Q: What sequence folds into this?
């Protein structure tokens, strides 16, 4: 259960945001999104609202691979995760894209955030973690470029894990979101 709720955003909304970012960066037709290389570009584009740093693995809790300070727009990435992303490891690339999703939705776009004092069950489309995860998948696996690929081809060409590729494939082909393309 999440402590915070955000305004409702659908997968289509988040796909649109991911595609807009790709478009603004001139990457709308690139199947492989260069997430590591883009970090420095984003520091220039969104300065001073966005910054990031690579930290020693022991500076973040064991199960935290990266985090985003929504007040400052600062992302911290474990060194092992950054290095893994540089080596095209899907999970690590997805981690960085996930944190970028938090920055864009909570810091830059200003999606409304509210405290869940009643500890009510949160529908996925109002969960900031689901939104960031969804955004990451949409950013790294552009539906309009992969719709004719298998999940294995998606994993290889997009630089994501096979599991992530299968999830995106399912949303593209079985999720009823054909209107998002």
A:
């Amino acid at each position: 259960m999440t402590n915070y709720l955000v305004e409702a955003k659908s997968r289509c909304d988040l796909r649109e945001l991911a595609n807009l970012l790709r478009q603004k960066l001139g990457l709308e037709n690139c199947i492989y999104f260069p997430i590591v290389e883009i970090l420095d570009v984003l520091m220039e584009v969104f300065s001073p609202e966005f910054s990031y740093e690579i930290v020693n693995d022991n500076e973040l809790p064991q199960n935290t691979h990266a985090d985003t300070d929504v007040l400052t727009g600062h992302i911290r990435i474990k060194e092992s995760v950054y290095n893994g992303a540089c080596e095209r490891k899907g999970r690590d690339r997805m981690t960085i894209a996930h944190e970028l999703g938090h920055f864009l939705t909570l810091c830059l776009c200003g999606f409304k955030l509210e405290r869940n004092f009643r500890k009510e069950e949160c529908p996925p489309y109002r969960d900031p973690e689901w939104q960031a995860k969804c955004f990451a998948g949409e950013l790294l696996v552009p539906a309009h470029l992969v719709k004719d690929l298998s999940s294995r081809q998606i994993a290889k060409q997009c630089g994501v894990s096979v599991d992530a590729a299968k999830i995106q494939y399912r949303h593209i082909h079985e999720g009823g979101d054909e209107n998002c393309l």
Q: What stands out?
A: The first strand starts at residue 4 and ends at 6. Residues 15 and 138 are 5 Å apart (CA to CA). The two ends are 31 Å apart (CA to CA).
